[in-house]
Amino acid sequence: MKIQSLAIIFIIIIMPITIVLSEYINNKISTEKTELVYDTRLLNSTYDAIKAYQLNTVNNAFGDVTNKKIQDVEAAANTFYNSLSSNFNYTGYRSEVMKEYVPAIVFTMYDGYYIHSPFNNTLTEVSEGSYDTSYSKDGEIAEGLKPYVYYICRYIRGSDDFVITYTLDNYITIQGIINGNYVYDYGYLYSIANVPNEEGIYKKDVHTYSYNRVEFKDDDTEELKEFVGNTEYSYVKINGKKYYLDDNKYSDRGIDEITVNGVTFKQSAGIFFIDENGEKNYSQTKGYSDDNTAEENSEFLKYYQAIKKNKSAFEYYKNAYEFSSAVLGSAVTGYKDKAGTEVRGGYGLSDLKTSDAYIYKHPASDTTSIEEYGEFDIFKETGNTKIQNETSNFNQHRKAIIRYVVETNLATSISSFSSNANTTFVMPKISEEDWETIENDVCAISFLQGMSIGAKKYNGYSVVANTLTKEYIDENDIYILANSNGTDIYCKVNDNHILSGESYNIKSKGDLGYYPGAWKINFEQKQDVSSGSDTIYYNPINYLGSYTSIMGSSGVNQIGDDMYTYISNKDNNLKKIYYMALGRERWGSYNVNNINYEIYGNNGNEYFLKDY
Amino acid sequence: MGDSAITIIAIFLAAILMFVFPLMTMADKTDEVSQLSIQTATTEFTNKIRTTGRVTQEDYDNFTLTLAATGNSYQTEITIQKLDQNPAKKTSGDTTTIGSNVYYTMYTTQVLESLPLALNEGDIVSISVQNTNTTLASQLRNFMYKVTGKSSANIVAQDSGIVTKGAAN
Asked: What is the ipTM of this complex?
């Protein structure tokens, strides 16, 4: 055979191999690229959902009440589907197409999460014709919210059998049998100090509690003020709802000051809240008048006192102390749990071990087992690390539980979604960083699966945190009011200008009537529709935000592990302002556990207006 | 004599067919794979900044390492457009205007000087990467197709997006 023939045969063999290989690589590359593009589209759509949720909650006076929350979550889910279909160019009547590829959207909240996912609509219990079939049909695939799942863990220890519900911070709820008694109790958990200098809450006497050497007294009250439209009102926040004092509402009753039961107020004073239409509503508390019933008048006095002499921060630390004592050590004398049962001794949970958790020994398959985190005392302080600190045993366990609860329910939800028979849906692996976000923030997790992208099917997820939420008061979300060259501005707590000896002077309570710390959400622009024709955009807090620390996120100190550690070695003035603001905002925030207990509590429930 | 000329041409053609052509194809593939891996790195880096609201030295170093692992040298441009909410709206008493915000831009050097850089929700981050060395593929291409002109940057990746979470602190 001639050498030329050999060469030709060589080429004939090599060429097809090269062509096929290169085609294969091209295909792989285009698959990878499409995957990246889809990842970004999914992230953008999830962000749109969060944005919609933020807009709805911030401008909604009841954005934190459960049924409003469900509405907002559903609206956010719709925004997600719309955004996703327009990102994938399926607009108009084809927008429904994308829903087939979304096995679930998860909205994590303060103490649990919602899954928005398709389900088989079952209407067998209702006779056909008794409902409008244009909205729902039996056997049809529909999307909707599944029941709320709590971050809950069951513990069995000897004869004790109870559950603890965890949240994104140190608030816990305990329900079940402990020491033979049924217990229902909840509160913020802090380390207890036995001497004033120790880190933790210390009880000096019934009127004075201290936390990290900062004292909270029940007569050290505040009068909070903020704008509604163009007028500044004093207000109090109860269960997340703000009650404003309008001194000149009922001018026909006279404008003189009167004193009833030791409370001095203007006769014309009325109290309003912003209702769901965005209007001022004076109907709940009717002011003080001889035409009112005695009960209505005393109710007014209570609200009036709460506005003028707010002691939320004191109540917060007092309750945290009493709850933590009952959980960790011995309960204070006469302490009752929230079901009204007197607690003698305490719950004795200081030596509760992770191995007492039911799921420690009976883990669900395919999840990160609690056992992997090791066996330790959940509520034990290790060295200088207190319960509330980020790196404490409690926080490690809390995060492990949140992760476990999300993983188990979500994996089930995703794999049971099989409307598209050609695809098996499996939960993608969520990265450690994203878990960190899920365990510490309110966020949305979206999944997108089953779309053909060349060599394989797409299977991706996206996690976006919601940092503008009314769900809970994050310890990082407190701003401090300071004076810089004659201008009052709000700064982040870790702004390096407000430390002692630096250029800004922190405002004092004497000038303002309240400790100059504010919650981040109060800083958001709002709209007022009550004046009629024009919508007025206003800022409830009429001070500027620091250009460096708030607007630009610069000029700040690194906080290290967590805010509690950062603040604990700062000067007492800054500490006091920060603790007061944190306590006050948390005590006034919406909380499912004590809804409707503003005025009249039952059993052992702490209710807001008890002491006013 | 005629035969020798044809033989020389044949050998020349065979050489191109058997060596240069496969070499070019393989070199091109190498570049495409590098291209893919830097595109992946760029998208991941961008998405990380977008979801954490933070540009850290560690992430930047990891990103640079991933780039270097492809065996080429790159020029990275990071542009961050910071949302500068108009401070006038609070003091002027103008209560009906919304949205008069402006963006100011930080370029690569400024960004790298201020690491770790905390961002706010609404800031825009864009990253573009292109190679600065001449890869084997572009050398061969420049040699083969003299007419089309020389270009060295043939591995390019870019990504951008809006920051979804303000850095907590």
From this structure: 0.81
